[in-house]
Amino acid sequence: xxxxxxxxxxxxxxxxxxxxxxxxxxxxxxxxxxxxxxxxxxxxxxxxxxxxxxxxxxxxxxxxxxxxxxxxxxxxxxxxxxxxxxxxxxxxxxxxxxxxxxxxxxxxxxxxxxxxxxxxxxxxxxx
Length: 127
Description:
Blueprint: E1 6-9, H1 13-24, E2 27-28, E3 32-34, E4 39-45, E5 51-56, E6 74-78, H2 82-94, E7 98-105, E8 111-116, E9 122-126
Parallel strand pairs: 1-5, 6-9
Antiparallel strand pairs: 2-4, 3-4, 4-5, 7-8, 8-9
C-alpha cells in the first residue's frame, strides 16, 4: 500500500502551485474547476510518483499555523544531496522564506533544513 496523494487547502492557489513547481521541481496539471461550487485544484506531481493536491474554495477556515501543533506538521522533500539541501535552503532564505532549522544533521542521522514555506506551511528539505 502507498499514499496516493496528500491534499492541502491554500488561499492563493496560483502562488502555491508556483512555489512547488519553482522550488521543488513539481509538475502541475492544468487544474480543475467545479463551476457549481467554485472548488479549484491542481495536482502537483514529483519525480518519484508522489503527488500533492492543492485546493481552494470560497468558504475556508484559515487557522493560525503554529510550529508545534497537532496534525500534519510538514511536508518533507528529498532533494538528493547535502549540497542541494544547502543550495535550496539558501535560495529560499534569499527569497524571503524563514529558515527555522538547519541545514544540519539531526540526532537520528538526517541531513535536513526546515523552512516556513507557502502560507506558513513547514517544508523540510532532506537528502
